[in-house]
Amino acid sequence: MNKDNLVNVLLSGLASLNIPGASLAIQYRRTSDRPIDATDTWNSMEDALRYARNTDAEAYVPYFGQAISVKGDKSLYLLVEDETISKEDGRNHFKLHKVSTEEVADAKYLSKVVEDTAEKLIHFKGGIDVIGTLTACIAKFSGDISSANYASKLLGWIIKASGDAEFKSLRVNEFLEADELRYNRVSVIAGEEWNAPGGGIIESVNTSSQTITLKLEPGELASLAVDDICKGIFNNQTGFQTAYFRITEKLSNSTFKYVLRSGASRHPAKLMHFVAYGNFTNADRQRSSYSTQSYSRYLVGVSDWEIKVGMIAMQLGDLSNLKLFGLDMTGHSAYLRNIYMSGTIKQLSQDGVTEVPVTAFKGEWKSGTYFYYDEVTHNGSTYICIEDKTNQEPSETATDWLKHVSKGDKGDKGDKGATGPKGETGPTGSQGIPGTSQFFHVKYSANSNGNPMSDTPNTYIGTAVTTSSTAPTGYASYKWVQLKGSQGPKGDQGIKGPTGANGQTSYLHIKYSDNGTTFTANNGETPGAYIGQYTDFTAADSTTFSAYTWTKVKGDKGDKGDKGDKGATGATGPKGETGPTGSQGIPGTSQFFHVKYSANSNGNPMSDTPNTYIGTAVTTSSTAPTGYASYKWVQLKGSQGPKGDQGIKGPTGANGQTSYLHIKYSDNGTTFTANNGETPGAYIGQYTDFTAADSTTFSAYTWTKVKGDKGDKGDKGDKGATGATGPKGETGPTGSQGIPGTSQFFHVKYSANSNGNPMSDTPNTYIGTAVTTSSTAPTGYASYKWVQLKGSQGPKGDQGIKGPTGANGQTSYLHIKYSDNGTTFTANNGETPGAYIGQYTDFTAADSTTFSAYTWTKVKGDKGDKGDKGDKGDKGEQGTQGATGLPGALIRPRGEWKASTAYVNNSQYRDTVIYNGNTYSCKISHTSSSSFDSTKWTLFNEFINVATQLLVAQNATIDILGTSGLFVGNLSKTQGWMMKGASIKHNVTGLELTADGKIDIGKGTLILSANNTIIRGTSGGDIAIFKEVNGVPMIDAKNINTENLVVKTGASIGKWKVTADGLAINGQNYANIDLNISGNKFLRINGRGDTGIMVIRNDAGSGLSISTASSSSKALSILAQSYGMAIDSTGSHKFLQRAGEKWDAPGALIAGRVSAGGSIENTWGNGVTSISASRNRGDGGYTIYHNLGHNNYYVMVTPTCYWDRGYTWASAMILEKTNSYFQVDIIHTTAGSRNVAFEFVMIGRNKI
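Given the sequence above, the corresponding structure tokens read:
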């Protein structure tokens, strides 16, 4: 087709010209800011021609058929090829061809410069790009419509012709209805999802008339009823709100009246989804369930706004918001009120492997068929069926049954009958027995039987009470108990070893046994009554039974049987009055036993609180000595426990470093010792880093002096020998008679508990002492002072050795501080070296500033040995004749000085007191004022020369004692030694050390020769011979009875070897002590074949009896470490509680009665030491307060009713239970909440 024909075609087709305006922007490249449209309009004809010719330096892009118009010219032009212009320049060149006038164009073409209307349908084949707003009354699209930036599932939006749509988000102001709504194939509920009897969607609400209208589909019935309890959650642009309302009236199928919950202000809102989760009156509409993101809850009996515990039938998931009967359900995942199950229930052990069936209790056994793990009771015991099916009767020998709980013991004997009426007056009593003096004697021994014994404190203490001031010389006369603490139990596990490189893997091996001697079936893999364990670095289990440590895991014996019936009332006693009192007995001599405690071996300072060391003193005064030197001190607390086990292997860490502890030594604190500091010296230096090699730089180490300073200079030598005795002085007049002594008796009991209950005469862990004026020992443990006799557990063992190195562990740090006293840091926050060194290891670089975080060890040496004794002094000059003695006065200790107290110094008494730690003697009789007057007192503890008839010296050293006569013995002078002139003679036996240096034994004979010494009795027989055989001194005697037998190191006593530290035994087989009185009465310590360290048997009496008298002490204290078994006992048990005694044990903690007014009327039990009550929540609302300190207990409440008020019975409900109170509501069956007295009991774990 030629160009002219094309023009004609274009001209003839203008009436139906369709200009793809949107496509021009794509096809035409702009070269200026001139407008482009379906027709291009130019300001002048010249511009239009220049554009069409396209010959300017600036290239244009005209195209064939382009429509052109010119301002002011009403014609329309088309571009046609201009053949007069050469195309050598590569451009298109056109000319203008007039095709229409403005009138014709207005009817046929749309304008780009004015608003225009198309009369017919316009088709845009290439598309349309609307920059502004697209407005349409009715828009129909035959294809897809989308945003310009639409990318599938990424950007923009699209509505497809198929009806599918894709948007970034969609907001629907009112209702969105769909047959199926799907998103991500996951159903997500952010709030609560309910399954309830009613609910709906609110279409409209009128808050003034309190009316709601539901949105219902045609034919749909509303699921609401009068008295429905409704709840809805909605967002009112300020956040989510919750509305509670109650349906009061049904106006139509979709319209209902409502009232708000009391105290609520939020009304239901339009478009709100709500639920009717309960009903106030209709029981059929009181069941519902709902789920949140953390739990699902099923409700019954919902008849109130608040969901209470009693409405919850089941809850699954997180139970942290649930408290049942006072128990916090946090950590539990399911609560079910009643459960009915069939089949077998199995519980998985915490080891993650063992499955344990749960028994099905069938009650008392009856003849019939039973199945696997059915539980029955029979003949007082409980049995579990261990076969799939059985008709066998349960018994001890039955093969199909496993005895689970044994029959309880027989109940206690009934109480004693009531006492009969008072009898007639009896005849006058006979003469009273004269008062008897009793003396308390103490000895010590290294052995448990007291042989040999001495006055030096040792491991065992022996006590004897006699009527003689002379101590028994036979060890069998004393009761012996362990005084020094036994070796402490094994120390706690060592601290965790630091993590290092290349550690080993440890394995825990477990087997089972039914009898503790052989494995169960399947080589010990079948669970049994015993569990055995051991740990090593080998994966395979050992098949050797003894390689395992065995523990019994089967349940304990059943509870003790009920108490027997009360005994019949006793017969009436004969009537009689008490006869008159007998005459006063002969006065006795008073002696008092005093006990103190101290943390130090010398007793300084001392107190009344039990501690590591115990001090004892016996005086004639009831006032205890206040000076620590007056007491004999022995260790009471147990020794240091053995070193702890090796620390457990450190966990494997990521990319950690291995730390090294470097140690060197120095003699002077400035340079290393020999061998580059490897030779131990007076100073030790340490530092820690991550390099294996030791530093050779002295300052790199922290230095501490570990060798003790030189000891103090020795004491001054003893004074020279006493000069010759002066002439005998005249005998002074006899001193006045001392006041009559009061008979006092010292009583000792023992107990296994610190309070002494129960107590016995058999030595045990605690010893109780009492001093009375009666020879009959008190029978109540509260009358005694109780102290621990057996050593307490030893302190924690040393730190475990460093654990084996692990692979790629964490960096560990050793922290070191110093102290001078073991309680506070030295200067510079503990960096200055001192007498104690403290250490601990962790994975933190910074040192702790807490003193207790460190383990402290004394590194400064003990004080040096005492210096050698001084030379003997010169002989003293002969003394002058002594003056005639004066009548004596009795020293009377009065204890601590007190104001407004009468003190005397007369011929009968001289009072002494203690003031500011010193002892003073009264100068003149006086009554003390408000302050201490030193002019009336003489300091009693100075060292002075004394010439007196009466001498009282406490712990004194007397260099010279010159006297015309000195009696040493009992106060009545019936037995003792008389020192007269230069001789000493016993006033009973006649044994005398004569003035000329000889020994006169009175009725016997003492023969002294060069080779032997013979003691011969009055019958002529030799009592003992001291002789020398082959240069070895020996004693030849049939029996030796001594208080202290000293045997040198290396000697042997039977199989026992005497060492520097005590007695040692050669071999464990001989390390035992046997007191075999008979086959059924013995005491064995480490006996061969015995299962324990100590075995006691006494078929004729008590095997072990312990008693105590102090209310603050315990007769027996037992502690099982690591939750081991403290007591494993078999046989009858009897626990008694006397009037006034406490009962504090797990189980029934306290029982009591609360009055209707809310006060505690009476209680029993001491598991709770503080209890009170109040009625503070209206009628029937009581709160009981206690100090138990935990909520691991249960409460049982029984209301009482008043029949005279027409009440039948009432029930009690526990509302809340905490660690300090619980709340009770009393509800009467007919009268509602009422104030009614009730009784309660608390059961659970007691307060520790």
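The longest strand covers residues 240-250. Try to locate this feature in the token string yourself.
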